[in-house]
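Per your request, structure below.
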């Protein structure tokens, strides 16, 4: 029986999430026993368009991205958005706060007209997506768990609970108690609360939980002399994009 065929694609991003896949050094051989990788620009030159699962990294930032993304959708049985850039526009959406022309001028100066660019969007504004692996970058274990789930016909894990839950399981001292703002109460878990465990606040790279309780988050912050404004600067790093319209 032939193995499922998987392919990786990237749009506007730093390609750090694909690098995380390559970093699965201890598991890569096991993975290759289960699947055939047929496109992966970071790792191979072949590019076969016959595949079952497409992992797509990066945001849509140019009109020319759309036909390429639709072609991927047509070829794949399943499309999985990997990373914050792909799933929620991530840090690319920071520039959506200003006119496109202004952002181009800041980045490219007097060469700005040589580059095409539009507002940054997640891929699900253009095509239907079957699952998400959140994070900036993605977590390697999360990627492997997702592949395992897909291979047995299950949905990828969605970790729809706050980072605080895993933080408490690790018995960390809450950063709020020492006056450090943290987005853990409203951010999707699954990362084992990696930042708070090492003394840094969560800045929301896995996106908001689906039922983000802003009111209870406010109360939690106020209890420790903090306000929602204290975490608002973190909100704009990964969570700027507001899904207004889905075309799928
Ligand atoms: S989500 Fe982060 S690590 Fe992944 S491609 Fe985007 S910027 Fe890079
Ligand atoms: S607010 Fe931050 S430090 Fe406190 S429990 Fe939640 S994730 Fe941990
Ligand atoms: S703790 Fe927050 S910022 Fe760090 S990986 Fe988890 S969700 Fe991302």
């Amino acid at each position: 029986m032939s193995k499922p065929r998987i392919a990786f694609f990237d749009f506007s991003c730093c390609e750090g999430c694909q690098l995380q896949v390559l970093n699965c050094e201890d598991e890569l051989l096991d993975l290759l026993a289960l699947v055939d990788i047929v496109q992966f620009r970071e790792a191979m030159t072949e590019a076969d368009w016959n595949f079952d699962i497409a992992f797509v990294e990066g945001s849509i930032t140019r009109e020319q991205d759309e036909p390429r993304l639709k072609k991927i959708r047509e070829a794949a049985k399943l499309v999985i958005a990997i990373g914050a850039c792909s799933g929620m526009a991530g840090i690319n959406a920071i520039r959506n706060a200003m006119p496109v022309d202004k952002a181009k001028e800041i980045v490219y100066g007097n060469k700005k007209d040589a580059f095409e660019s539009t507002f940054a969007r997640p891929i699900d504004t253009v095509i239907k997506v079957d699952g998400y692996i959140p994070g900036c970058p993605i977590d390697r274990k999360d990627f492997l768990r997702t592949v395992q789930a897909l291979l047995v016909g299950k949905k990828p894990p969605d970790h729809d609970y706050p980072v605080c839950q895993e933080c408490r399981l690790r018995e960390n001292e809450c950063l709020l108690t020492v006056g450090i703002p943290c987005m853990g109460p409203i951010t999707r878990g699954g990362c084992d609360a990696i930042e708070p465990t090492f003394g840094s606040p969560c800045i929301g790279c896995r996106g908001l939980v689906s039922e983000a309780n802003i009111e209870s988050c406010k109360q939690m912050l106020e209890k420790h002399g903090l306000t929602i404004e204290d975490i608002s600067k973190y909100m704009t790093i990964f969570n700027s994009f507001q899904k207004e319209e889905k075309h799928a």
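The chain has two domains: 5-151, 163-238.

Regards,
D.
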